[in-house]
Each structure stands twice: as C-alpha cells, then as structure tokens.
Amino acid sequence: MSDSLSPEQKEKLQKMKRTKKTKQVEEPENTEIDTLTEKLLSAKGEYRYAFEEKNDMKEFDTLVPDMKRKYSFELDTFQKKAIYHMELGQHVFVIAHTSAGKTATAEYAIALAQSKGMKAIYTSPIKALSNQKYYDFRKIFGKVGIITGDVVIQQPDDLVTIMTTEILRSKLYQDAKFIDDVDWVIFDEVHYVNDEERGVVWEEVIMNLPPHVKMLMLSATVENAINFAEWIGRTKQQKVCLVKTLHRPVPLQHYVFCGKSKENKEDALYMFKKGEISFLNENYLEAYKRIVPKFMKGKKMFDAVHDVKHLQQFIEFLDKDGKLPCVFFIFSRKLVMDYAKRLAKSTQFDINAYKVQTLFQEMTEGLVESEKNLPQIKEVKALLLRGVGVHHAGLLPFLKEIVEVLFSQGILKVLFATETFAMGVNMPAKTVVFPSVEKFDGEKKRFLNPGEYTQMSGRAGRRGIDPIGNVILFPNKVLPSSTQMQNISCGAPAKMKSQFYVTYWMLLNWLTSGSDDVSEKMIKSFSKIDLFEMANRALIAQEAQKVLEKDEEQAKCSNPNCDHEALILIKKEINEIRRKITEEVFIAKAQGGAHFYKTGRVVKFSREGQSFYGIILDKVGEGFTVYYFDKTEGRVTPINLRDIKTVYNKVLYVKGTENYTETTIELGDKKIKTALYDRLNSIITRKYQEPLFQPYQSEKKRPMNVKELFSEYTKNVEIMIKMPAFTCSVFKKFNKESGRRNKLQKLANDILLNYESNKMVMDKDLENRLDVLKHFEFIDKETNILTLKGKVAKEMVSSDGMILTNMLFDGLLNKMEVYQLAALFSVFVFEPSNESMEELIGNFKPETNELIDLLEKYAMEIVDYENTKNIEYTIEKYVKMNYGLMEGVALWTLKKPFNEVIDASATTEGLIVRCILRIEQVVEEVTRAAAIIGNEEMTKKCATLTELLKRDIVNVKSLYLRDTAIVEGKAHAQGFKPILVDTNEALDILDKIEDNGRIVVGDGEEEKISVDGGISDVPFETENNDEEEEMPKPSSAQPQVEIDF
Questions:
Q1: How much is the pLDDT for 1023?
Q2: How far is CA 189 from CA 125, 286, 337, 663, in A?
C-alpha cells in the first residue's frame, strides 16, 4: 500500500514520526474525562458508605478512654466495636444472635446521648417488648418515658422514650421539631423491615429522620446486612459501621431425643449440632433410624397430648439431667393449652404459689367479679399453681405478663409457648424443646426456615448461669430427613428485603412536608436502592456530557478549510474497511490464512473503549492471546475476533514466551522487552505506512471483494492525508483522547437512558396515585396542596383515611350511634384468626350487614377509579377489612359483660382486648380530624366512645408499668390483702372441668373429650392463621415419612 503513495504523501507521513526514540509509549494526560469515567465505573456495585469493622479492639481502653456507661462485666468484642463507632458519631448496625448482648449497646447509646445533654428514643416492633424495656431501662436510668397505643408516660426530663416504630413515624410527620433534642434513635429488631405488612414503617422512619440523629440498629442474623447499611448511608450521606458476630456467650448443643423402647432400654440424646460447627450427619441418622421405624409400623411416637406418660418421662429426664427450666415451642394455641393441661394434671412442680397468687391479685384488683371468673383467667392461674406456664397471642395481655415475670424469676420450670415468645421478649431458658419443626404459615404447612429456628433456639442458655444451652427435638410428628434438618438448623439466614409501598396517607404527608418532587422521596426507599444508585450515576453522567460538550466547543479550529467532522467521518470509514479486511483472515480454507496465527503477528485491538497495538502469542479457541503495552507495562490479555480492528503484515520475532500468565509476561532478557516496546512504537508512529496483512499469497488469487476493499482503503488514505485537518494541531490534541471520550460518551448515554426509563415507570405510578387523590379532592388539582379533606385524611393512620374522611364529609359518621362507630372502626384494626369471612357475614345481624355494605360501597368507589388509572386493586388488596369483631365490640360499647363479647366474637380474649385498644387509636385520630373541621358533635361522640372502650378488663395497667418492687414481689399495691393458697385447689379446678366432660381451650371454646381421656377430633389452630387441622391420632394409618439414609 505504501508504494502507491506519492513522494509528497510519504513526506507528510514521515513528519508524523517521533523526532526522538523513547522507551515509553506516550500516553494522554490524565484529564477530567478520566476522572469522570472512573467515577461512573466506581459508582456501581461499590459500598461507599457501609463498612464492617475488623479491628480486634485490643486497644479499646485507649480508643475509648472516657466510657459514658460502666459495665459490671467484660464487654464482648462486638460490643466494643459498636461503642467505639458510636463515640465517633457514626450510625451503627449490630448483627448478633438472640441473647448475645445487643441491649448493652443500646444502653450505651442512651448514656452517650445523656452525656451531651440530649435524649434517646428506643423503638420496638411490639408493645409487649416496649413495656418490658420500659421496666428494664427504668431500673437503670430512672427517667424513662413510654408512648404506645395503650399508654403515654412522659416527662420533659426523660433520658429515653420508648415507643413503637409506628408511633415514631406518626410523630415525625406530625411535629418534626420533637426530635430536635434527640441524639440517638435505637431500632430494636430492625430485621422487621422484612415484615410484609409493617416493614414499610421502618423505611419511612429512617428516611424521615433528620441528619443530626444517629441510628443504632439491632438485628438478628441476616444475610445481606451490608446492603441495608449501604442504603442507609446513601440515604443519609453518612458512614454506617456494620458490626457482626456469630459468637454466642452461651454455646448451643442441638439434640434429638429418643425414648425407651423394647430394643432400647434407656432414654438417649443424639447430638446433631454443636455450637456453630457443621451438621453432625451420622448422629442425626442414628436417631432417625431409631425413631422412624415406629412410624413405618404404624406406631405412635411421643404424642404427648394423647399419651401424657411420654411427656412426663421426658420432663423427668430433663430434670435429672439438669436441663430445666425449659420452653416448649409449639405452633398451635390449642396444642399449647393441651400440652400444659395434661402435664399440670399429672405433675406438681415445686412452685412459689404465694407469688402466683399475689401477682393475680395485683392484676385483677380492678376487675368486676364476672371478669375475675373468666375461664381463661381461672385456667391459666390453675396451670401456674401447678408449676406449668403457657404463653400465646390469644391470652389476655396481663396473663402473658404474669407468665413472663414468673418464668424470668425462675419460678416456672416448664413453659409451653408459641413462636411469639421468641420475638423480642427476653426470657431465656436452659433448654428449648421442639415437638415439631413444622408450622402453618397462613398458606401452607412447611418446615421452619433457618431464621425462625435460630430465633427460637436462641432462647436456650442463660448468660452467666448456664455453660451451654440445649435445643432438643422431642418429635411427636414426622422427624425431618437429615437434609431437611440440616437446612433448618444450618441454612443461610433470611435476606433483608424491602417491603416498601406507597400509600395515599404517605403521599399526603410527603406533600405536607414540602416535598415538591415526591418521586425523589420514593427513590430514597430501600426498595429503590438500585434506582437510587442510578440517580447518583446519572448526575455524574450529566456532568460528563457537559464536559464533553465543552471539549467539542474548544476543539473547533479557526481555519475555515479545516473540517474536523469530515476527517472523523473518513477515519471511521477507513477503520470499517480495516475491519472487513480483517474478517477475510478468518474465511474458512483461505489460502495463506494459517500464517495469521503465527506468533509475533502485529494487530490493533480494542479493549474497554481504548485501542492498543499488540503481538499475537497463540490462538485459544475462537480467540487469541495477545501481548501488549498498557502504559509502560507489558501485559497479556485474551481477545476475540470482534476485538481486532486491524491486522498488519508485520511479524515480530518473539522468543521465550512460554512462561506468560493472563496479566503479565516474562520475556527473559530485558533487552527483548525493550526491543518489542520500541518496535511497537515504531509501528504506532507510522500506522498508515505499515502494510495490512493480506490473507492471499498472490494478487491473482484474491477474490474480487478483497481487491475492492484494498483499493478503497488506499483511496481513502490518500484523501485523508491531503485534508488540512489531518495535520491540524487542534484536532490532533482533541483526537488524542477520542477513544476515552467515546468511552465516556457511551457510558454516560447508557446510564442516563437506563435511569430515565426506570424512573419513568415509577413516576407514572406516582402520577396515577396523585390523580386518585385529586379526583376525590384530597389535594388541589393544580398545586398538589392538601385540601381540607386532605388535612383530615392525613390524621388517620390506623384506619383507611380516604374511606373514613369521605364518610365524615358526607355526614354519615355523625348519624351513627357510638356503638356503631366502634363496630365500624374495628373493621380496620382487627387481626383475626382463620375464621371464614363468608360464614361470619352470614351470621351477622341485618344492621351489621347494612354497615358492611355501606363500607364496601365507599371502598369500591375508590377501587373503581383506581382501576381506570391502571392501579389494579380489589377491595381486599386496597384495604384489609375484617368484620369478625363488629358485633362483639358493639356489645362492649353497650356496657355488656366481657363474657358476652367473647360469645359474640368467636375469637380469643387476647385478640379481643388488642382490637379494642387499637380502636382507641382510631378514635383519637378521628377526634383530631373532627377538630380540624370544627365538628363538635363528632368530637363529643369520640370522647364518649373512649370512656366506654377503656374500662375494666381492657384497662388493666401493664405489670411492667407498675412499681418495680411490685413486679419483684418486694411490695404490694395499696389495699392488698394476702390470701393463703392451697396448690391442690388448682388441681381441683382442672379436675372439675374434665369431670364435667368438658375442657376449656385457651380461646374460651369448649371441646368434648373421650372416655379414655384422650382428645378425639379436636382441631388446633396455628399462631399465625389458626389453620384448622386434625390432631395426630394413635391410629394404624401410616404417615408419609421421608427417609434419608
């Protein structure tokens, strides 16, 4: 090709050579383009705010010389890490097992706030835990407040205020200034962010906390804590320290219990897991072989409900082996009661009966006589006097607290509980027992997931008391296979997953707080962490585009004949011809094509948007290994055909290349490397003189298309070097960075396109929801400012604000009687068991059905319009309305006895009280709403309703909110009169119940028992959804057993 150029053209090319040989390839300067490219690349998939502390804290005393709180024990390493970073003023996320000591870090956060003259807020997911923490912190700090839906105890000088996360959310929206003097917010059980219904609350609070507030987050073990920490850091633009520990202060040992049999005369424990080590498969299989054949032969195993003897023997075994007190975790409320009653009737434990009696007297002092004699109260008291405890969500709140206090003080040795006992309430035992590791989750029966098993197992082992904690499978059902049990006990913990969704109430609050662009708030949610990352990168991409535009403006030449655009176009055309010629090299059976593969062939290839000259070392599959220079370093890289831009006729002799790696190459003598370096420089400086590789040995044998390509290539090169722009110094400077400019341009364009397309989908959904608010006149159609209706709806967080506001403005609430209002409000807050909605509606009175129809009419108006805006909702999806307590609540408001409310409600006493307490929250919100519009009649009705709701058994003050001396048995309330206690009285109660042929179950229902004492055909309910299922029977039916030997 070079022979076809004129002497003048050759001269021009020669001038482009370097005047002086150099041992270093000239590289473009590190410009702003490089910086922006690096920013865009590094902004993806990198943890810029979250980090995990790896320091062993051996120098802790030096790092934290002035401890704000003293401890009577040596802090664990993870606690020291958390305290150190709290002292640095950083957010801290603590991941540790149950009972590992996370509360100690919470205490330090409170003390740290106190040292600055500021306050702390402690949030918990459940009221029971809030009450217990109030009791605990009050003993430590003295000045402690509490705000829940049930109670408000608050003084201006409180050091810490305990509240549920929902209360904190509401307060942040209602009065942002209340948190001005708060230094730390502590989120206990922050893994509740995974909760499908309530997880959104945690995200809202974190997003809305002001920048000066630091967060201490406490969580059970989760898999992707670093991602959650990074989200918080990006949201707050602050560092977040992740502190993780797998250490348990009290190590656990996991067993399968195998009782006596004809073949095996002794009880036996088979350990299948010790501490945090891997699953002991052989031990588990030994237990499996010993147990499963009984099922295969149709024999019953340890069915404690049907054969209490096995349960007694097991308890005796635990007692002799020093493994009491213990907690049985059972996933059915009815089975909890059945286990407890059978054991209590056959066994009398040593019990401080006087303590039981006094606690009951304290808690029932204000109850009317009929309430004191409620079956549930008498039954639980009888069980406790026999030394057996029960704990489940269906119990009255104060009964659960009595059980908790007695168990925490070591008075109870055996406790039967559902899963809720493990959720937050800190009541460790020496041993945890699982009669089954299978549960109904509301949709299907399944084995426990690793997180659930770990949470409950973590209640085994009392720090400072027990050297080890015991977890025992006491199977009364099918024993899981070894594979299943390994997954249950050793599987990966759950991932933190956003449950964020936008509600109309949330939008009203965002608009009130002055958020002009609600989509920007949405982007900050954990669910949009990818979009949030895109948004950050999009800002950099926009900056990059401005820099590129500025560079293009500066690259314009003052010479009118210097056409840079034309030069760029012809260079692109030349490169395209080169690419086509290169393809010819790979034409199958091309004459001379094999010469291309030889070591030393010089090629020009593209890598990450930049061009390099390299030397082929060998062929690998469909690609090649190429030696090239990156800056001044010789490197090796694999390339594909599509990476090659130009193939040159030049072949360099390369010796000693056998010992290269994927990143570097050792060529032996340094002179060889230098020679290659200089030779490539020579090729680079005269690239248009260097002949292209021709895959055909003679011109005659070239196909016509190849001849045309070579002819076109030569022609375009001749045109190019005659162009004024070819020698233009301005263009040369601009073009020197063209590869990196192109890379940045493509990167910026891709990022902006991706961000805009994703944001468009989100914005459309928000726009549709705003249209719904406009249609029903909650916000102004032009300004998005809240209307009077919008301000009213914003007050209602516990119910559906849009439905109630529409009913209020239409005058319907004013027309209702007080008892009807209570029934209406219950629909939004009642969390039922697994009752059939159709059956309940069929059994309602006509008046109740009319109220339900009216409510659904208002709901359907909203749903129908939503569907026109492509928000595909049904009534059930739009708002959860449960009608099961409407008539029961109405009776309570009409001052009927509580036992009549139970009869009308077909649910447990505990759920009834919980619902009534939550109705009070709705009433409080409707009261504020009525005040906004000056509706005095509604305000008076709400005041009356509050008085009617909060009375007698619903108004029992939490045990944890009473004087600590009363809880500890060191004092009594005024007017207390001691009563002598006979523990046989409890047995008489249980005997009388069964002598009448009836047995009262925990929720107040009565079931028949068979003559032989075994329960027949008694359905049981699960903690979550009370799925009805037959209890296991000692029949000859062979159950399905998965055998894994």
A1: 43
A2: 7, 37, 28, 47
